């Protein structure tokens, strides 16, 4: 039976039918795995944002240092910074991996086990502290899908 409210028991099925906890030891290992997985999610998000910042800063300048003001006239599709460049492909792969990690974390929280929820939230906070809250706040890349800004 799937729980629809938070519960605090040590018996949980997480993500797969084969991942069931039946003892305090297996439950503890599951919570540690959730914590480490969420720290890894923050690490991958940091890597993705740093890669995006790095690739956008090298793509926006031409070889002479001038900004390309006519992007529609550039017919080199596979050129550096083009529509199918290696940097854009790598960025999309990193985005896909990070999205998959995020959805796995969401599905784990949807087990409605209180310990799993706390482990994931604490892991995300630890990962943010370790990888994304440093002095280099210029790493933040704003992806605003809204057309109003």
UniProtKB/TrEMBL annotation:
Keywords: Copper, Copper transport, Ion transport, Membrane, Transmembrane, Transmembrane helix, Transport. Pfam families: Ctr (PF04145). One of its GO terms (cellular component) is plasma membrane. InterPro entries: Cop_transporter (IPR007274). It is a multi-pass membrane protein. One of its GO terms (molecular function) is copper ion transmembrane transporter activity. It comes from the Eukaryota. It is found in: Membrane. This is Copper transport protein.
């Amino acid at each position: 039976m799937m729980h629809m409210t938070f519960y605090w028991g040590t018996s949980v099925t997480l993500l797969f039918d084969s991942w069931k906890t039946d003892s305090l030891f297996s439950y503890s290992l599951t919570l540690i795995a959730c914590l480490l997985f969420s720290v890894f999610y923050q690490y991958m998000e940091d890597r993705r944002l740093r890669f995006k910042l790095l690739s956008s800063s090298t793509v926006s300048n031409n070889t002479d240092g001038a900004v390309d003001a006519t992007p529609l006239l550039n017919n080199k599709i596979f050129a550096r910074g083009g529509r199918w460049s290696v940097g854009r492909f790598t960025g999309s792969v990193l985005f896909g991996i990070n999205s998959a990690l995020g959805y796995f974390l969401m599905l784990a929280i949807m087990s409605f086990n209180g310990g799993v929820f706390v482990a994931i939230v604490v892991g995300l906070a630890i990962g943010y502290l370790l990888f994304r809250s440093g002095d280099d706040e210029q790493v933040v890349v704003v992806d605003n899908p809204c057309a109003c800004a």
